[in-house]
Amino acid sequence: MTALGQLLANRKALVGLCILALFGGLALIGPLLVGDPSDFVAVPLLPPSAAHWFGTTGQGQDVFAQTVAGARGTLAVAFLVGLTVLLLGALVGTVAGYFGGWIDEGLGLLVNLFLLIPGLPLAVVIAAYLPAGPGTITLVLVVTGWAWTARVIRASALSLRQADFVSAAMVSGESHLRVILFEILPNMLPLLASSFIAAVTYAIGAEVGLEFLGLGDLERVSWGTNLYWASNDVALPSGSWWTFVPTGVAIALVGFALALLNNGLDQFGNPQLDPERAFLRATGRKRLQLSAATPVLRKSQSHG
Amino acid sequence: MRFLLRRLGFYLVAAWASITLAFFIPRLMPGDPASAMFARFRGRLSPEAIVALRRAFGFSEAPLWKQYAQYLAHAARGDLGISISYYPATVGSVIGQALIWTVLLSGVAVLISFVLGTALGMLGAWKRGGWLDSYLPPVLTLLGAFPYFWLAMAALFIFGFGLGWSPLRQAYDDRLVPSLSWAFLASVVQHAVLPGATIVIATAGGWMLSMRSTMINVLSQDYVLFAHAKGLSSRRIMLQYAARNALLPNVAGFGMALGFVLSGSLLTEIVFSYPGQGYLLFRAVKSLDYPLIQGLFLTTTLAVLGANWLVDVVALWLDPRSRS
Amino acid sequence: MADTIAATDAPLLSVENLQVTYLTASGPVPVVDDVSFDVAPGEAFGLAGESGGGKSTIAHAILRVLRPPAAITAGRIHFGGADVLAMDEAALAEFRWKQVSLVTQSAMSALNPVLRVREQIVDTIQAHKRATRDEALERAAELFRIVGIGTDRLDSYPHQLSGGMRQRVVIAIALALRPRLLIMDEPTTALDVVVQRELLAQLLDLKDKLGFSVLFITHDLALMLQVCSRVGIVYGGRLVETAPAATLLAQPHHPYTRALMTCFLDVHQPRQARAGIPGAPPDPRHPPAGCRFHPRCPFVFDTCRSVTPLLTPRGRQHASACHLPTSGVGQP
Description:
The structure holds three protein chains of three kinds.
Chain A: H1 3-9, H2 11-34, H3 63-99, H4 101-116, H5 119-127, H6 134-161, H7 164-171, H8 176-184, H9 189-213, H10 223-232, H11 245-269, H12 277-283, E1 288-289
Helix pairs in contact in A: 2-3, 2-11, 3-4, 3-6, 3-9, 3-10, 4-6, 5-6, 6-9, 7-8, 9-10, 9-11
Chain B: H1 2-28, H2 33-40, H3 47-57, H4 64-77, H5 91-126, E1 127-128, H6 131-134, H7 136-145, H8 148-162, H9 182-219, H10 222-230, H11 234-272, H12 277-286, H13 290-318
Chain C: E1 13-24, E2 27-39, E3 44-48, H1 55-63, E4 70-79, E5 82-83, H2 89-95, E6 100-103, H3 107-110, H4 117-128, H5 133-147, H6 163-175, E7 181-185, H7 193-210, E8 213-218, H8 221-227, E9 230-235, E10 238-244, H9 245-250, H10 255-262, H11 302-306, E11 312-315, E12 318-320
Helix pairs in contact in C: 4-5, 5-6
């Protein structure tokens, strides 16, 4: 089975992919289908109805349109951040793990510093001085998010460096660049994929958080700004749950789908974490208790 | 012991790096930072506010290195300048009060979450295939996929506005005067329940999954088999042989995740108007109170560094192999 | 070399037709099949074979500590007259350690890294007897003396002890409740040769003094022949030959046994060409038809490929599962 085939066979990963495909589609063509989400369409704070499936916001905008349009706003930035974090993290991590020595010490220190310094305050400090908008958000998210990927990839590069085939390649005179590009990186593909997913997951959450705080471009429609306005337009006291629930559910679905996908990828490299179902069925048990004695199951017919 | 000192050294470097970052970031911004900042206020700044800004950032006519040295000296003294939105209060005093509330809420919530998540993970791994192992992790993962502050909004909506079970905002009933009386303390607890519970539910899933994973690894180790063969009770094996070993990497992971978790809990404060660092940050951003923003960055970072060092101490204490 | 041949009546441990199967997602996989052997009181019986051949599985099955997805699917295990396979959890708690105990391969991994060694002895004692902590500590000190470790080491953590000392600790724990049978699973593999000899000599000494039996599992045939009075050879989860040690050394019958013998160097013999056994151990999921060894056997003929050989007697207490005739062995 090809890698993709195996992935698809995993139910969890399949569900995750479907959800992501749905939202990806919304991000791509959604805005074309719903018209301008910032338009004033009806009386503010109307509950869901046939005319407005998710009701209206505190400023009289259509919540459904905002949720759909918000997909593009949020996912585009998240995707870009994920990609940049992956590239930067892979660069730093591979160089550090491969060359070792003081290069590793120096880069390692840098990585550890950025891992330690809490992301939100740092992001706010930088973003507060820059014009509000997706560019700023992308920048601060990359600055606060690159270190985790770098650390993970560094660990992998370090261990791959010791592998025989790498030593063989180096001894046969391949340049460092070629070794990195053709020997090391190709063996990290599952890790790179999983890191990308983790980075995008982080980016979505962090982006929404920053925008909720008020640092996003408030004229733009994205999931984060939707929640900012919902909170600011007193959704809660007025009981207008529809102004914040759809966006939240959308964010959670995407996050959950990414987690499923990552979990599906996990089954690839790691032994199964699922309990042994065949065993449970055969022994008629519901739970696998490790301190239980080895069961004795005789077949119904005795052998000679 | 040497390990702890080395870690402390690292944290000091990190603290210095944060202060340096705080110094340079305004100066790295395009254009002349001072005038860019003043421009933001479109001339609405009072002379006092200008002085506050200058002091906070160490803007002066002196050469850069001198400004930096002064800035370091101020920071070491705890002088973070004067807040613009709370003028004439100093940044330090404003943050001081908020810090206590944040440490109370987030500190307690994160600890509860870690203990709860870890215990659930341990039990889930011990009885594989049960509901604890099959259903709870995906449910908690799904809940954790919602932004913390969204869960806060939902919780506040249902339990606060809807059912009226919880107070709606702030850290205590403002008809009460802060004191060590029962009434006051009870009010504090009452106000902390909902925001705290939100943080616990949002984060417990992560700890649960990670403990479950390390437990499963540990359960396949020889010493667990040996303990089983020795005829030890189920409970002793699970706790003393499996969990104690599975806990070690998770404690280290706890430290690393602290900064991340704190970011989420700060946003949660905003929803509840809970007077901690998060709420302060929200107001500071709204009014572009730069000295306060900078001050919050520094204090939050230093708090996380301190907490990390404490976690290192605990991790060291738990693992006898690292003591020698 | 031990040359006492144990009496064959009233065996202490009796294993009959034992079958252990892994119930995996892709179907049941038998890893131990139709294994039968006895261990008499006070005897040292050895099981030898390649790694992964099922020897440890047999040992763990006796104590019923095999982990899921393993299950015992056929056979009988009797110890001192009691049916081990019929025991419930309570009976097993009594049985384990008090009657039969286990010394595992790598002592470093058998000892809990976060507990002091004295705790790991004390909890064993207290799990089985009503003993106060002081009584248990006294017994722990006594055990340390028996295995030859200074009692000042009681407070140590496992990582603070050397490999040999750790193995002694494991043996001490194994002897804590005065078991009647000690199962030793590759107990000296992780140790250097000098320590190995010391430890084994000491162990045999203890065995004679305290009177317990030993089930000695190893892939080191030469070592086993020195330590045990009777021996069984395991291949592909099946017992292919059993014999008294002297007999096996002099007249090995099964081709696998003979191949194993040639794998070991004897310093005193004239130089000989060494050969490993070509091929690989059988995959338990797809074992070869007929005799499991036939793909690697230098004496293979047609019957071997289709008919599974049963253990047939070849001499006094000597049986071998092979289609080759008893005499004229070695001629194709």
